[in-house]
Amino acid sequence: MTVFGLLRVTPVTTEDITEDVAAAIDALESHDVTYETTPMATIIEAEDVHELFAACASAHDAVSTDEIQTLVQVEEKRAVEMTGADKMDAVEGELGREARSDE
């Protein structure tokens, strides 16, 4: 089984959120997940949905602000073993190029 998650932890404050976002990302290290952070969210990959949710909870808990908004979107492949790289390879194969702009 493969589980993919999109995680967005947003500290709600008028202060700089960089430190809290970094803490949320760092909290993922204590879990058996792989992840890649983008400017908008973090993509997480795990073998088990419970490990994915535990990682998301740790990221949420790592934020120190008084208000936090956390968005989690999950895709679970129960009948197929597939990595995020496999998914990207399929899309890029269909495109005939990388799935990003040259600029």
TrEMBL record:
Signal sequence range: none
Cited InterPro entries: MTH1187/YkoF-like, Thiamine_BP, UPF0045_domain
Transmembrane intervals: none
Stored SUPFAM superfamilies: MTH1187/YkoF-like (SSF89957)
Region (Disordered): 83-103
Gene Ontology CC annotation, any one: cytosol
Any matching Pfam family: Thiamine_BP
The Thiamine-binding protein domain, residue ranges: 8-92
Cross-referenced PANTHER family: UPF0045 PROTEIN ECM15
Sequence similarity: Belongs to the UPF0045 family.
UniProt-recorded name of the protein: Thiamine-binding protein domain-containing protein
